[in-house]
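step=encode ok
step=design start
structure_in=
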C-alpha cells in the first residue's frame, strides 16, 4: 500500500464535484421519469421527509418539488407495502393509520382502520398523485388529511451536496381554491414556477399546506388528486390523472411493440433482462435530434457523451435505433470553436451538458463541457459500427462532416505526441484532471501508488482510436474516399503495433493502464485492458493472456471483474474506480473475450453479473458496486451513491448475452450469422425475438443438446433472411 498521507480535505479539493455519501436512507427510494422530468420518491410516497439521499421532482437540473408529505390527523401514516411497477411507470404505496389516542390514553380509532392507496406517475413534466381512501371501520370516521408541500428550486449540484454563497429569490402565491404557485427567480433572472393543483379543492389551502376534512361511512371511499407541474397548468386536461395515465400507458405499449424480447429457461435471468429493458425505456429521453439514453438517475439525468456512446454500442446488436439518436444528438453538440474554460476544441464530442442555474453562472463548468478524451473516438467508432449494422448510409452521409471533424481532432492531437498517442490534459483548473471513463482524481497511478502526472495516454483510448479508424474505413470507401480509407487502415495498424510496444507489461501479463507525461508506463493491473480486447487492438496471444489474468481471483470477485486487481497499491473495493465493479466495464471485457474466441470466459462474466443482479433490489444492476469477494449466503455490497438505474449498466445484460450468442449482421447480403454460440451453465434455452435486419424481424432460439453443445434454430423469418450458424 502507498505511504501517501491524505489530508481530510484532499478528496474534495481534488474532486470539487465529488458526491458525498450520506446516512443510509430511512425509507427506500423509487424513481419515476418521463423525458426531462424525473421524481425520486420514498416508500411512503413522500418527498423531503426521510433522511438519506436527496429526493424531489427535477427537470433539466433544477428541483421543482422538495417536499410532499401526507399526514392523517397530524400523524404520519404507517406503511403496509410499496413498490415501483415492473415497467417503471408507476409507484404504489399502501398506507394505513396509526392508533389515534386522546389525551387520556383512550383509543379513538384503532390502527389499520383506514386504507390509503397512494399512486404516483410522471408524464409530460407533471407528477400525478391519487390518494384513494377507504374506511374499513364499522362506524363513521372523521379524518383530517393534510398535504404539506414546498420547494427550494435547488440546482442538481446543490441537491447532491454543493454549497452556494448566494441564491435567487423565492415566492409563493395561492391562485385560487385549487392551485398554488411556487416561484423562484434565479441570480441570472430566469423565472421558475411549480404549479400544485388539488382536485377537489381542499377545505383549506395555504402557501404550503392543503387540508381536507373527510367524513367516511363504514366501507366509504374518497379520492384526492394532485398534479404538480413544471411551469403552469394551462387547462383541465393537463391535470387530469386518468386521462394522462391512459396517455402514458398507450405510449408505453407503442414503444414495447417492436422492442427486442428475450426469454430463457432461467426465470431469474428473464427478470434481469426485463428490468434492464424497463430501465432503458425509463432513461430514454426525447430530444430534437432523436431519443437519447440519459446517463442515470438521479445525478446524471442529462446528456453524457461517453455514456450514451457506450450504451448505444452495447445495444447495437438488438436496438440499433438507439445509436441513431445518439449520433444525431452528439453531432449537433460537437464543438466548433476553441473554448479552454469548457475544454472545447473543434471536432471534439461533448462530455456533459447541464442546463441548471449553477452551470449558466459558471459555478460549475458543465454547461457544455468537453473534458473527455474518449468520447470523440467512440463517436467515430459508433458511426462505423452503425453503418455496418444497419446500412443507413443516408444518416452517415449527413454526419460525414462531423465524423471528419472528429478524425481531424484525433489526428491533430496525436501528431503532437512523439509516439503518436492521443493524450489528455485539462485546459482549465475547473475541469476534470482525468478525462477517461475512470475520471476520479486518483484513478490513474503507478505501481507505488503515486499519481500519474502530465499529459496522460490511456491504453483504452488508443485502442478506441484503432477500432474507430478500422470501423469507419469501409464507410469512407463506400462514400468514395478510397485514399482516406486506406490511410485510416494503415494508421490503425501502426497504432495497434505501438500499443503492443509501449503498453504491454510482460511482468504483469496485461496492458498497463496509461503512459504518464514523461512516457513512463503505469504498471498496474486494471480492467482497462479488457477495453483493448473489445476494440480488437490486441494480438491474439496477448488477448489470451489478458483474459487469463482478468479471470484470476485478483480480478474476478465472484460477482464480476474489478476495476483494479486485488493487491495493487491503490486497490480499495469500496472506492469509485480503484477496485469496485462496474457492470458496463465487465460487458466490454466480455465482448472483448468473445471477439477473440474466448466464449467460455464471456459466459463466466455473464454468470457472475447475473448472480449479482439476482441479489440486488429489483434485479437491477446499478452504476457500480463494491468489489468484495463473493461469500456464500451474502449479497453484493452496494456502493453508497451509485446511480440506479444507470444506462450503460442497464444495457449490460443484453451486451453480455450478445457476447455469448455472437450475432453478426450483414445488411447488404440480407444475412444474420451466429458465431460459436454458448450459454452459461444456468441457462439451457434462450429465445431472442424481434431481431431487426433492415425492415424485417427475425426470431432465433438456442438450446443445449444432449452432448452439451449449443444449437440454434430460426423461429420466425420475415422476407427469407439468411441465418447462418458457424
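sequence_out=
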Amino acid at each position: 500500500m502507498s505511504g501517501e498521507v491524505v489530508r481530510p480535505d484532499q478528496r474534495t479539493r481534488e474532486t470539487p464535484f465529488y458526491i458525498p455519501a450520506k446516512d443510509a436512507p430511512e425509507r427506500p427510494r423509487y424513481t419515476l421519469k418521463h423525458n426531462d422530468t424525473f421524481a425520486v420518491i420514498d416508500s411512503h410516497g413522500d418527498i423531503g421527509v426521510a433522511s438519506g439521499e436527496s429526493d424531489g421532482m427535477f427537470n433539466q437540473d433544477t428541483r421543482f418539488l422538495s417536499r410532499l408529505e401526507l399526514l392523517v390527523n397530524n400523524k404520519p401514516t404507517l406503511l403496509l407495502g410499496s413498490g415501483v411497477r415492473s415497467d417503471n411507470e408507476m409507484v404504489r404505496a399502501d398506507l394505513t393509520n396509526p392508533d389515534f389516542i386522546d389525551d387520556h390514553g383512550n383509543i379513538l380509532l384503532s390502527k389499520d382502520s383506514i386504507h390509503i392507496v397512494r399512486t404516483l406517475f410522471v408524464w409530460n413534466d407533471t407528477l400525478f398523485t391519487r390518494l384513494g381512501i377507504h374506511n374499513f371501520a364499522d362506524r363513521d370516521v372523521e379524518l383530517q388529511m393534510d398535504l404539506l408541500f414546498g420547494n427550494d428550486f435547488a440546482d442538481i449540484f446543490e441537491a447532491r451536496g454543493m454549497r452556494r454563497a448566494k441564491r435567487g429569490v423565492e415566492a409563493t402565491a395561492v391562485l385560487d381554491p385549487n392551485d398554488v404557485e411556487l416561484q423562484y427567480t434565479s441570480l441570472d433572472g430566469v423565472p421558475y414556477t411549480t404549479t400544485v393543483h388539488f382536485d377537489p379543492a381542499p377545505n383549506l389551502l395555504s402557501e404550503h399546506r392543503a387540508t381536507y376534512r373527510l367524513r367516511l361511512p363504514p366501507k366509504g371511499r374518497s379520492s384526492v388528486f394532485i398534479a404538480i407541474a413544471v411551469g403552469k397548468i394551462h387547462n383541465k386536461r393537463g391535470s387530469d390523472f386518468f386521462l394522462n395515465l391512459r396517455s402514458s400507458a398507450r405510449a408505453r405499449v407503442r414503444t414495447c411493440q417492436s422492442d427486442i424480447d428475450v426469454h430463457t429457461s432461467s426465470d431469474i435471468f428473464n427478470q434481469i433482462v426485463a428490468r434492464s429493458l424497463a430501465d432503458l425505456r425509463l432513461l430514454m429521453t426525447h430530444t430534437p435530434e432523436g431519443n437519447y439514453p440519459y446517463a442515470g438517475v438521479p445525478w446524471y439525468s442529462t446528456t453524457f457523451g461517453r455514456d450514451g456512446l457506450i450504451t448505444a454500442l452495447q445495444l447495437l446488436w438488438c436496438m440499433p435505433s438507439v445509436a441513431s439518436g445518439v449520433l444525431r444528438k452528439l453531432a449537433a453538440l460537437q464543438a466548433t470553436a476553441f473554448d479552454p474554460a469548457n475544454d472545447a476544441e473543434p471536432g471534439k464530442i461533448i462530455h456533459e451538458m447541464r442546463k441548471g442555474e449553477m452551470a449558466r453562472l459558471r459555478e460549475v463548468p458543465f454547461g457544455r463541457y468537453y473534458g473527455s478524451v474518449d468520447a470523440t473516438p467512440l463517436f467515430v467508432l459508433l458511426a462505423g459500427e452503425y453503418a455496418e449494422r444497419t446500412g443507413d448510409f443516408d444518416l452517415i452521409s449527413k454526419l460525414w462532416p462531423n465524423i471528419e471533424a472528429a478524425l481531424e481532432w484525433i489526428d491533430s492531437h496525436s501528431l503532437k505526441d512523439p509516439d503518436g498517442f492521443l493524450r489528455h490534459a485539462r485546459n482549465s483548473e475547473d475541469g476534470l484532471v482525468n478525462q477517461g471513463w475512470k475520471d476520479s482524481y486518483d484513478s490513474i497511478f503507478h505501481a507505488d501508488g503515486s499519481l500519474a502526472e502530465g499529459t496522460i495516454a490511456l491504453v483504452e483510448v488508443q485502442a478506441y482510436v484503432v477500432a474507430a479508424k478500422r470501423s469507419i474505413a469501409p464507410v469512407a470507401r463506400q462514400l468514395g474516399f478510397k485514399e482516406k480509407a486506406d490511410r485510416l487502415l494503415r494508421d490503425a495498424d501502426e497504432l495497434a503495433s505501438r500499443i503492443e510496444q509501449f503498453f504491454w507489461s510482460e511482468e504483469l501479463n496485461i496492458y498497463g493502464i496509461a503512459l504518464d507525461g514523461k512516457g513512463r508506463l503505469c504498471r498496474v493491473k486494471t480492467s482497462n485492458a479488457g477495453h483493448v480486447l473489445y476494440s480488437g487492438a490486441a494480438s491474439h496471444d496477448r488477448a489470451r493472456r489478458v483474459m487469463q489474468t482478468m479471470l484470476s481471483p485478483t480480478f474476478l470477485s465472484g460477482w464480476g471483474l474489478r476495476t483494479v486487481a486485488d493487491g495493487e497499491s491503490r486497490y480499495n473495493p469500496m472506492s469509485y474506480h480503484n477496485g469496485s465493479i462496474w457492470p458496463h466495464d465487465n460487458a466490454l471485457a466480455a465482448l472483448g473475450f468473445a471477439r477473440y474466441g474466448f466464449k467460455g470466459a464471456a459466459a463466466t462474466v455473464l454468470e457472475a453479473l447475473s448472480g449479482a443482479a439476482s441479489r440486488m433490489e429489483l434485479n437491477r444492476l446499478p452504476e457500480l458496486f463494491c468489489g468484495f469477494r463473493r461469500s456464500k449466503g451474502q449479497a453484493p455490497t452496494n456502493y453508497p451513491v451509485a446511480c440506479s438505474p444507470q444506462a450503460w449498466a442497464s444495457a449490460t445484460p443484453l451486451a453480455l448475452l450478445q457476447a455469448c450468442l455472437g450475432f453478426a449482421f450483414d445488411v447488404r447480403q440480407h444475412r444474420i450469422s451466429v458465431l460459436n454460440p454458448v450459454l452459461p451453465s444456468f441457462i439451457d434455452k434462450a429465445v431472442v425475438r424481434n431481431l431487426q435486419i433492415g425492415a424485417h424481424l427475425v426470431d432465433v432460439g438456442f438450446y443445449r443438446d444432449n452432448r452439451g453443445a449449443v444449437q440454434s434454430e430460426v423461429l420466425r423469418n420475415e422476407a427469407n433472411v439468411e441465418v447462418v450458424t458457424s
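step=design ok
step=annotate ok -> Confidence is low (pLDDT under 50) at residues 1-14.
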